[in-house]
């Protein structure tokens, strides 16, 4: 369970850092992604994008 928690946490961090590039192709704006502004700074939690990219990585891993 701890391994999955770490994996999801790491995925959210990586997607948050790569969000400006991923928004050009539509990721980061899915219905499950959370955006909010706090103290003048915008925070993005791309939960739906993380799940989508994890599923794509799983399918690619199964094919290889």
UniProtKB/TrEMBL annotation:
Record has Membrane as a keyword: yes
Entries under Pfam families matching the protein: DUF2905
InterPro entries xref list: DUF2905
Keyword Transmembrane helix: yes
Transmembrane segments: 6-22, 43-61
Keywords attached to this entry: Membrane, Transmembrane, Transmembrane helix
Name of the protein in its database record: DUF2905 domain-containing protein
Organism name: Cupriavidus lacunae
Lineage: Bacteria, Pseudomonadati, Pseudomonadota, Betaproteobacteria, Burkholderiales
